[in-house]
Amino acid sequence: MSQIDNPFARGYQNPRIVRTLLITYENDCPPIWRPLHASQIHLSDDQVALFPCLIGKDFALITEGQEISHELEIQCETVGIVRIVVYAIEADDFDGRPVHVGDAYSEEAARQVVRRLRFETGYYSRCWEISSAHLDAEAHRFLAELADIATPTLFLFIAFRIPYSPAIGLKLIATPWTDENLRAVEGITAKRLMQEHRKKGMPESLVHVLHLAALADVRMLVFDADAQVLDGLPIYDD
Fold it and tell me: Is 235 part of a structural domain of the chain?
């Protein structure tokens, strides 16, 4: 299963910081953006901003007070001036494509944004309450039976009843259910786990919802008739 169009998926993946330079050159040319060349990444912002630079195809080199090899110099097309240093926050979308999230004007401010994107202050969007209409009658019976017994370990989830409520909850284990994570934790693939669930008689409507949720790293999933439906999931009228 892919994260694309997964209604449980939230946020960006692999947030990171890229220091970039806004450079002007020649009066009639629009500004351009370049990162510092790897040989100069040790330079502080104060050693970069408002200094002249050489502009290459995909990098810039500060010239004042710096030694630049002839090999690098001939790779540069023109000269310019660094107007400002910007810390770009980038991340990956669900399909792996890079996304520009925003800009900050100091490394610390950028780190704060990345920290929040990574949910380092706690885990968000890992507990979901969705309508039980996303399960058919067979799946309802299957879950109810599991909630009253010890759920088999190989299922990688635990079903339980919510006291004084008809709702049923699931505690998912070893998420996200990706090949990489499941191989590391359980020595199986996501396809193998899905096969095991079907082999044990799990109805298809539950297989579909459960694996989408686990792929998005959901840890607690509650099915309640009074909860809202989740756009993108099938609805069953029983």
Answer: no
